[in-house]
Design goal:
The structure is a homodimer of 244-residue chains. Chain A is an alpha+beta fold and 244 residues long. Chain A has two domains: 116 residues, Jelly Rolls; 88 residues, Arc Repressor Mutant, subunit A, CATH 1.10.10.10. The first copy, chain A, contains eight helices and eleven strands. The first copy, chain A, has a four-stranded antiparallel sheet with strand order 1-8-3-6. In chain A, α3 crosses α4 and α5 packs across α7. Chain A is globular and about 55 Å long. Chain A starts with 10 loop residues before the first helix and ends in a 13-residue tail after the last helix. Chain A binds a DNA duplex (30 and 30 nucleotides) through α7.
Chain lengths: 244, 244
Amino acid sequence: METGTPCTLCPLRRRRGFKPLDEPALAALQALKRGEMTVPAGGAILSEGETSCRLYTVLSGWAIRYKSLPDGRRQIMNILLPGDLVGLQGELMAAPAHGVEAVTEVRLCAFARSSLWDIFRGHPELGYDLTWLAAHEERLLDEALLSVGRRSAIERIAMVLVHLYRRAAAVGLERDGTVPFPLTQTHLADLMGLSPVHVNRTLQALRKRQLIRLHDGRLAIGDLSALRRVAEYWEQPAAQRPLL
Amino acid sequence: METGTPCTLCPLRRRRGFKPLDEPALAALQALKRGEMTVPAGGAILSEGETSCRLYTVLSGWAIRYKSLPDGRRQIMNILLPGDLVGLQGELMAAPAHGVEAVTEVRLCAFARSSLWDIFRGHPELGYDLTWLAAHEERLLDEALLSVGRRSAIERIAMVLVHLYRRAAAVGLERDGTVPFPLTQTHLADLMGLSPVHVNRTLQALRKRQLIRLHDGRLAIGDLSALRRVAEYWEQPAAQRPLL
DNA sequence: CGTTGATTTGAGTAAGATCAAGTCGGGTGG
DNA sequence: CCACCCGACTTGATCTTACTCAAATCAACG
């Protein structure tokens, strides 16, 4: 665990799309920061059932939040991108019922979980932001549940690709019409409640229709509106989000 | 909209399972309360896409929170029971992307949404509780997503029955080994991502195995541990929850 | 090279959807 | 009282989507 960049210089915070924070709040946040941490690709950030005394913000890299059944079936609940909070989800102070695993190498900004309470007391606006983030995460889950419960395989895949493209672009990962895409087809399967084989065939169908391109770890969308139409997906304009 | 019971006398608040609130916090809450409201069975509490300036707590009755696709397919995100908050989910101040509908007659306690900010500023402990509730809801969604994504039909139905039984019992709805169960099989289908016909056959299978009984609107569980085993479901002990 | 993980392809199958009736019970109006 | 209607629940038959199993390909890497 190293000290890392001070919050005032955090490169993420500069990005459009993140709500600017005023000087005192930033200072308070800095005071709570416990350092930075790097987890290698494939490494565990949180283990299912194990309590962590830390709370993290993803600074860079991709991670997955998942739950699994005793027999090994696994469901990915969400993909974590830079700016996302790790560890808020599981019942504020209790053991999380989910694991978090790095997909690529992940850089994290760590806070002491016990300082949560200080945030609420000392900086109500940060407490509000925290709740905003929780409500936002819930909205992502709603969308995922709708997909898995009611969309067909091709709709689900189209949906998740549009959605991840937008999220990645929103945190500045877009480069000439592509975003990095480190997920394997097995990840997509576990994310959308499908088998890996079926994901493969579905991706082929989308490629054949020229809707997407997927080359050396990057994703490009051929025809956004057509892809959205396939997914029956109309996203709401993204509000500026807080960053802790 | 009537004035209703003062928060200090709220019958829900007496129940074991709800965290007691101290005098000043209770008074603050009372000050924000805008009255009570009754919605008939089948009535809309929130419409998809429509902004509401209110925030509600369910006092009695059952409701569903759902999203739907343009072609009419519907996914229920959660069942709302007494003590649950309505309207926190959708991006704190923005239009909710979901609807909420009464299943039975529902009695609601209303707050002005604009007072959310006052809560955080004036009563950090209430702000914390709010976040706790959001994190808790997220946990419910996690469980639902795992079910719909990775559990078989019989596992899903077993799971949801165990889960709803516990939740209903936790808010005092249990009477000699049964809880009220106002959901139709179509509700269960929309909740678990199945067709109504298949829900019917699956319920029959559970009944044949003596695991559940479902009579005149009440649910009884024949063999809890067996039902849990079917569902591959091990729930964590319920912590005391806050009530707003 | 041999190994390892990801992707691809093919063949057979099963879980659950869809379609179509039909039943049951509780109102409602004549 | 009875005919009717409506919604929820049942049942049977058929069909489709997506799963499973198995094996081949491919690229990266030591």
